[in-house]
Amino acid sequence: MILPIGDSPNPRTTPWITWSLIAVNVLVYLLLLPLAFERPAPDDLREYLDAVAGSPMEREVIARQTTRYDLTLFEHGFRPAAPRPVALLTAMFLHGGLAHLAGNMLFLWIFGNNVEHRLGRLAYLAAYLGTGAAASLGDMAIRWDSPVPSVGASGAISGVLGFYFVWFPQNKVHLWVFLFPFFMDVIELPARVVLAVYVLVHNLLPLLIAGGDAGVAYGAHLGGFFAGALAAVFVRAARPELEEPDEHPGAPGDLAPVFRQVLDEGRLGQALWLLLRQPGGRALPPDDVLRLARALEEAGRPQDALAAYLRVLADRVPGRSRVDARLGAGRLLLRAGQPTLAYQHLRTALDEGPEPAQEAAIRDLLGDLGQQMRSLPRGRWRP
Asked: Within a domain: residue 104?
C-alpha cells in the first residue's frame, strides 16, 4: 500500500477555505448518513431502477439493496444523460461512502493549502467550484448518454491538483509505503511525479482500457485536472511578477549601450522600459539587468525588481548570473509572503551549481524561509 500523507514546503498560514470545504463535505455526509438505514417506497424506486438495472432479476436484487441514501445520490448527483445546472454544485458535496469521502478529503488536505495561499481565499473557492463544474462536464463528454450519476469532490480536488502541478514543481509529497514485510517507511517524491502517476496511471490508462463504464468517473478527474492546470497557466500570465516567464525570442538590434547609459544615469524607469517593452532582451548583458534589478529593489520597487530578475531567467542565461537571478527572485517572493514560490527558485538554484558565496546566501534565505513554513522537504539543501 502506498498512501500520500503530506507535502512540503507549506506556508504557516491557516487554509480556512480548504478546512471549510472539508468540514462541509463531512457534515453533508453525516447529515445524510441516517438515510443509508432507511428503505424507500416502491414508487420511488422506478426511475432509479430504470437507470441502473437491466433484467427483471437484476431489478429485484437491486431493489432489495437500495436505500434512501442511494436515491439521494441519484437525485442530486450529476447525470450526463439528464444534466441539471444545480447538480454541477450538489454533486461535488456528495459521496458514495466513507472510504470515498476519506480519500478525497485526504487529497484536499494535502494539496489545498499551497494553492489557497497562492490564489487567495475567494479566488481559491471560485477555482475549486469552477473546476468541479468543469470536471462534471468532462465526465459528460465521456459518458454523454449515461443515466448513472457521478458524485464526489474528486473532480474539484483534481482541479486543485492541476493548479499544484503547474505552480509547485519543486515541492515534495510524503508517501507512506507499507509493503510488509519487505519495506515500511515514509519516502519523498517530487510532486510532479506523484501527480503525473495520478493522471496517467490512475485515470488516463484505466479510461483507455475500461472506457466510461468502469464505475469510476475518470472523465471527471481528467477534466478537473486539466481545467485546473489551464487556469493556473492563465493566472500565471495575469501575474507574471510572481512567476518565471517562458523563453522568449530575440530580435535584431543592440540595445546594450543605450540600456547601460540610462542605467548609469539612474533612470531606472526608462531602463526597465527598455528591458521589458523593447525586443531584443537577449542583447542586454545579464550583469546589467541584475544591476537594474538590485537598484529597483533598493528603490523600494519590489515588483519591478522581480520582473527584472525573472527576465534574466527567461533569457536562459547560464552560470553565476542565473543563480543570482534566482536568489533575487527568491528573496523578493519571500518578502512578498509567497514562501512556497520562493522555495521553487531557491531549490532550483542549488541544482544549478552555485558558487560558495551564492550557496551560503541561498542557505541563509532557506533558513528565513523555514520560519514561514509549516513543513520542509528533507535533503541536502536544508538550512
From this structure: yes
pLDDT at 314: 84
Question: Domain tally for the chain?
Answer: 2
Contact 79, 148 (CB under 8 A): yes
Are the C-beta atoms of 3 and 194 separated by less than 8 Å?
A: no
Rounded distance between C-alpha atoms, residue 201 and residue 179, angstroms = 19
pLDDT of residue 245: 43
Phi first, then psi, for residue 152 (nearest 5°) are 120, 160
- Say whether both 25 and 131 belong to one domain: yes
The angle at the Cα of 49, spanning 46 to 55, to the nearest 5 degrees, equals: 120
Q: Is 7 a member of any domain?
A: yes
CATH number at residue 229: 1.20.1540.10
Say if residue 227 is in the same domain as residue 152. yes
- Please give the angle made by the CA atoms of 381, 382 and 383, to the nearest 5 degrees: 115
Q: How many CA atoms lie within 13 A of 268 on its CB side?
A: 17
108 lies in the same domain as 197: yes
As given in the structure block, the three cell numbers for residue 346 are 531557491
Question: What pLDDT is recorded for position 277?
Answer: 64
Residues in the chain predicted with pLDDT less than 70, given as ranges, are 212-214, 239-254, 277-283, 379-383
Rounded CA separation 348/353 (Å): 10
